[in-house]
Amino acid sequence: MRKICIAVLLLSAAVSLAQEEGFHRAQQDREISYWLLEPSTHQFRISHDFTVTRLGQKSVHSFVRKGSVVSPDAAMTDLDTGKPLKTLTVSGKDVNALGYYPEPVDPESVAVQGNLEHAIGEGQSTRVRVQETYTDPVGYVMQGEELVWTRTLGRPLNYVTLPAGWMLTSINIPAMVALDEEGRIKLRLVNTRNGDLAVVIKARKRPVKK
Asked: What is the extent of the structural domain holding 30?
């Protein structure tokens, strides 16, 4: 039986939570949640929130990583009004033409765009939630009887939930492990670095009780 390589960082988690409580909402772009679907699909769902404050900005974007494909059911919601945003898929070239972001993106890249009801006015902000399903046949695979999910995580706080009926066998970085309300294993990963975390998660199906 393999050793489960998990370190529980209670002190780091407590500090992180205390810091999060003090942030203005415009700074609360710190966390993201992943839900791994059955590994045979190579798919996982993502949800994250961010605040738009740029004067005159009329659309927001979620950039798709190279090698991944985003499903057409991607959704964005204006959390201040509860209204869904009209979404469409655009190229990096289209995004760069808007001039919203300080650094240009690869013109050949893909982004999900959500159109705001009104452009951001002076002193205004809008809170947006993004929910997407990605297919990644390279980063989410089966190796023998184990699922393997490999990804770099850039947010300070990251949650990863395993598929129902799967148990964690290893993870290459410290994590807090718990069960969600449906009994699935949920990992809490804190990134205290300036750069990204390179994460490798492995899991296998729980034995069926007879």
From this structure: 1-42+136-205
